[in-house]
User: Fold this.
Amino acid sequence: MAYSRLRRSSDQRKALLRDLVTDLILNGSIETTLAKAKELKRLADKMVTLGKTNTLHARRQAASFIRFEKDEEGNFAVQKLFSEIAPKFANRNGGYTRVIKTGFRRGDSAPMAIVQFVEE
Assistant:
């Protein structure tokens, strides 16, 4: 499977992507660089697919990747994925997130993008 290395070692890359997926689930939308956004989209779509399956095995797979963090209401990210986010996409086959290019970062001119869940 082809993936972007994001100029990091494998453990740093995995930690970064875990944090980004968790933040996306908790907040619904995040702004990051375009390269990170494209990788995040792939992983977030896989997590929503696991959420739609809604079995114990799928929950454990998602919990092994998503961080153990809470949102403002006190729900854990895995709970929010399975109870709120995944049911919204019950009738949709893929394409749960969108990447919107926003321009360039001021400091180093890195292309920036917003990743968010598609509302339906």
